[in-house]
Hints:
single chain, two-stranded antiparallel ribbon
Amino acid sequence: MGPFTKEYILAMLYLMAAAFSGVTVISVSRVWTHWSPVLDTCIDIRCGCILYATRSAHLAVGGDNYLCHFASFSSVPVVILGLLLAGYHIFRACTIKAKITTLESMYRYQSRNGGDVVLLNSHHHQHIAVIGNPDWKLLALLSGLVSILLAANAAILTEGFFETCQEFRSALVKALSGGTPALAAVVRERLSCNAVFDLMDYMEQNIVKNGTQGKLEYFHKEILDTSFYLQIGIVASWFNLVIWVVTLTCNSLLAKSVAQFVSRIAN
């Protein structure tokens, strides 16, 4: 694999990683800001996060806001880092120069009629010149640290999604337990998380306290496809993690090859 191909592949990987990080930030932030007025019903702490939300008989309670802070904004530096590294490798790919060196050899022969015949033989050698050499060990270390960060992000998003789904499914089962047992069993055994979040989208309401009368006022909020946004964020986060693991592998292999080359020269 030539140096241009290596730089091009790494640049594309970093661009895709930045794109997936941006998708995660936008999708999770959209859901968080949408549900925060509904779920932030705690007294001492801010609990407006859709992840790890719970549902009592009368009230929906969100998870700690720090969870949504981390799930939403931990990918922001990954977007910046991915764009910077993509630009760096694109610059290196564009500055690769192929130099052609021509070596000419002259041969003199004597013809049958006594004259001289001169033959010119040319050999062309191509040399690839790349500006500088990156510290592949440092890039591998950065890829490893980002992979750990994204693994935590993807795990929190995935587990928080299913925990909220399970909590609201249990609340539905309790609400239906006094009616038809078969309907409660269907909700418990067959209702998917997509359907659970769809019910949340249409059934949960915003709660606002009226300061003058001290009463709670309810109004319907904007309908949002919560399940779609959360699943897009989860899928993007896992794909992003895979890409950074691939870049970690590539940078580690390049660092190993450079170390072996230096070792051969030293010996």
